[in-house]
Write a structure and sequence with these properties.
The protein is mostly helical. Helices cover 67% and strands 10% of the residues. α3 crosses α7 and α4 (74-84) crosses α6. The relative contact order is 0.09.
């Protein structure tokens, strides 16, 4: 290897010099590219599942994929272009809206760094690259805000659906409980005095009757004795 380097040292030196020259030319000729990055922390549900089941049943990777598709949909990209300004996105004015949307999608990078456990927090990194640093920053901010808004909208809809379902179940249970109470009331009315819960009161009611019976029996015995004497 040393002999090869010694024999080809001028080729190696010339190749390195040519690479440096081409790199310097590219550095001065090619326009600079700026990347703006933002990080979104996706925290898990704080309330234990034993108390309240989570309303989000889709895993984070599928949710991220779905949110990415919705954020880069025609309606959302169209709204982002309106907020940023089409003139800033296309100073030449030669691109159509669809072309600008394709450019935004091409320069957008979204990555998920999932936690090691199911209850760990996840991090979503959003990056946008553009020739204009201010434009890259504004687009990264707008896209991350759209991500958060779409996620909040999803969770709100799911929570509302869960709340509506629980309300319907509560109304159904109220109806069933009312019907059961009515049946119990009718049962008690039909079997008044014969219910297990009335056993103690019935026994207390029987005590004076037993006393009266005993008294009557004693009186009968006394009368029979008098009758026998007569």
């Amino acid at each position: 290897l040393i002999e090869v380097v010694e024999r080809r040292r001028w080729w190696l030196v010339c190749g390195a010099l040519v690479g440096l020259v081409l790199g310097g030319i590219a550095w001065f000729v090619l326009p600079p590219r700026y990347t703006s990055e933002t990080t979104i922390l996706v925290e898990p549900q704080e309330v234990p599942d034993s108390f309240v089941k989570s309303t989000v049943t889709v895993d984070i990777e599928n949710r991220l994929r779905t949110l990415h598709e919705r954020v880069t949909s025609f309606a959302n990209l169209n709204a982002i272009i309106d907020r940023i300004g089409q003139a800033r996105l296309d100073p030449s004015g030669e691109l159509t809206r669809e072309a600008i949307m394709n450019e935004i999608t091409r320069n957008l990078f979204v990555d998920l760094k999932a936690g090691k456990t199911a209850t760990a927090s996840n991090v979503v990194e959003i990056a946008y690259t553009d020739d204009d640093p201010e434009l890259a920053k504004d687009l990264a901010s707008e896209i991350s805000s759209t991500f958060i808004a779409e996620n909040t909208k999803d969770r709100t809809q799911q929570a509302q659906s869960t709340s509506d379902f629980l309300e319907r179940e509560l109304d159904r249970m109220r109806t069933e409980v009312s019907a059961a109470e009515e049946r119990v009331k009718e049962f008690k009315e039909k079997r008044m005095g014969a219910l297990p819960s009335q056993l103690e009161s019935n026994l207390r009611f029987l005590d004076p009757l037993n006393t009266e019976i005993n008294t009557n029996l004693e009186s009968q015995t006394a009368l029979q004795q008098r009758l026998a004497l007569l």
